[in-house]
Write a structure and sequence with these properties.
113 residues, alpha+beta, 16% strand, Arsenate_reductase-like, Tscrpt_reg_Spx/MgsR, Thioredoxin-like_sf
């Protein structure tokens, strides 16, 4: 089963969900705003992806928290991900023991079709 993690009002999450719907692919949706992102989930994603892919340093949350001023190393970014789930790039998809971050239509076609 495909697990899609994100928030429904995120443009890239909407693109991913639209892709799955248009291709009649079933998925479970985990909403960051309604369910807690656990430390274990973040550890799993980091084991199967990278901090650079997962940590969103372009979003409003990053800017509002003024994290750029902190010059965070990887461990610092990991700690912030565990405190603030809105710093995660979206969507995060778990599928066949893989973690896919973001939306890339060609990558999705290669993996899911």
């Amino acid at each position: 089963m495909i697990k899609v993690h994100g928030i429904k009002n995120c443009d890239t999450v909407r693109k991913a969900l639209k892709f799955f719907k248009e291709n009649s692919i079933d998925y479970d949706f985990f909403d960051f705003k309604k369910e807690e992102v656990t430390s274990n989930m973040i550890d799993y994603w980091l084991e199967n992806s990278s901090i650079d892919k997962l940590f969103n340093n372009r979003g409003a949350t990053y800017r509002n928290l003024k994290l750029k001023d902190l010059n965070l190393d990887d461990e610092g970014r990991k700690k912030w991900l565990k405190k603030e789930s809105m710093l995660l790039k979206r969507p995060i998809i778990e599928y066949n023991n893989k973690v896919i971050v973001g939306f890339n239509e060609q990558e999705y076609k290669d993996i899911f079709l």
